[in-house]
Amino acid sequence: xxxxxESGGGLVQPGxxxxxxxxxxxxxxxxxxIGWFRQAPGKEREGVSCISSSGGSTNYAGSVKGRxxxxxxxxxxxxxxxxxxxxxxxxxxYYCAARYVMCADASDFxxxxxxxxxxxSS
Length: 122
Prior knowledge:
122 residues; 4-stranded antiparallel beta sheet; 0% helix
């Protein structure tokens, strides 16, 4: 069974930083692209960032470009989302998801983690 577990969320002040982790098991991690998504209360899920299986290709939502960095360590079966210059509007539950090789829309990701809460507030 494919399993993803997010961690690293918490409460941070505006302008602060946080690093989320996505630990994978049950599949060949380096064959899968990893996406990060988020959902704020009362809002639809939105894509945040994605990294291809090799790490050679990445993408970011316009709202986070320049502030967030996606990365992965295939030797550790773990992907990361490093978030800098956090804003209150970044507050959401953050999810990671896996899809074979290439990034795509959220509907094409078949395996999802349980989510980790990120709250940006003073």
